[in-house]
């Protein structure tokens, strides 16, 4: 069993090393995301090695007792930190959110508690003859570990919803798999499959996150043009509504205020679109200053439009030069997407013309 486990660990380390190199070479990930993934992979590798060490030195002469204690301490102590590293990669922003800071402090507090508990054997103990055993309150580790998994799961689901990711339901089977595997490991500790399964799940999580980010427009966080083209093919017979948006005189904003301020305007408009429409459809950036929404329920169009206009007015209190946005819509009823898009564009240009006429008249 020891040799078999060592072979599995070597395979595990090879996979994790490969993932670290792949992450470092990725052009799609930000520096922050690379740091989070590499840290997670390195932690999993380190804990896997620590588990091998505990297996090798357990029951050996008492001179190895300190190594047995330290390996178990680091293994139990750092396990929840893997989930924190994966939460860290979810947001490209470099600032730390309050709840993430709180979880980091909880992890540090847990490490201190675990260190202080070693002489009393609360979570685990290594006797004078250098034999490891679980402590009376081993369930504290299990609770902390599950809390970290729960935090990662909730954070991922929230972020996937924010990014309008249709695959977010895939998170649930991953949670169930990891939970079942952990329960089996707790019940049958001799199996020693935890970190092999965690490696597998971390690779799947890496693939899932990359797929989610590849669907997004980098500037606005809306779904990108490829996502739009794929989705419109599915909605042809759905009876949904295509709504297109175009920013009026956006070139003037760039010329007068600079491209950086122009990008701020686009991001603000995209945020208004998402807040107004994302609950009832999918929001896309399909060009420079062109946006669209695939609305699943046409009855919500007027309600969403009203909310969108309110959101824009609120943003103009912060960004006084935020331009006017024209819009037009067309219903899917079996026609080719190009026909639907052409009609929506026609309605949008009519809206743009009316808005410019009102501006000319000072209305």
UniProtKB/TrEMBL annotation:
Query: Which parts pass through the membrane?
Result: 6-25, 37-57, 69-90, 102-126, 138-158, 170-187, 193-209
**A GO molecular-function descriptor:** diguanylate cyclase activity
Matching entries from Pfam families are given as: GGDEF
Q: By its UniProt entry, which InterPro entries does this protein fall under?
A: Diguanylate_Cyclase, GGDEF_dom, Nucleotide_cyclase, Rev_trsase/Diguanyl_cyclase
UniProt keyword terms in alphabetical order: Membrane, Transmembrane, Transmembrane helix
KW DNA-binding (keyword) present: no
Family annotation (SMART domains): GGDEF
Domain GGDEF: residue ranges: 238-363
Identification of the protein by name: GGDEF: diguanylate cyclase (GGDEF) domain
What is the native source organism of this protein? Anaerobutyricum hallii
